[in-house]
Amino acid sequence: MDDMAGNKTEQATEIKETPKRHLWNWILCAPALTVLVFAASGPLLIVLVYSFLAPGSFGGITWSFSLEGWFRVFFSRDIFDPEIVSLNTAHLTIFWRSISLSLQTTIICAILGFPTAWFIATRPQHTRNIWLFLITIPFWTNLLIRTFAIQEVIRNQGLINTTLIRFGFIDTPIQMMYTDFAIFLGMAYVFLPLMVLPLYAAMDKLDIRYLEAGYDLYASRWQVLRHIILPLVKPGFIAGSILVFIPSIGAYVTPRLLGGGRSMMLGNLIELQFGQGRNWPLGSALALTMLVLVVGALVLYIRTVNREEEPRHG
Amino acid sequence: MARDFSINRLPGFASVAILTFFLLYLPIFTLVVFSFNEAASMSRWEGFSLKWYEAAFQNRQVRDVSIRSLWLAATAASFATILATLAALGTTRTSKFKGQTMIYALINQPLMVPEIVTGVALLIFFAAIKVQTGYTGMGYLVAAHTAFCIPFAYLPIRARLETMDNTLEIAAADLYAGPIKTFVHITLPLLLPGIFAGLMLGFVISLDAVVITEFVKSAGQDTLPTYMLGQLRRVVTPEMNAIATLFLLLSVLAVTIFFVLSRKRA
Question: pTM for the full model?
Answer without folding.
Answer: 0.88
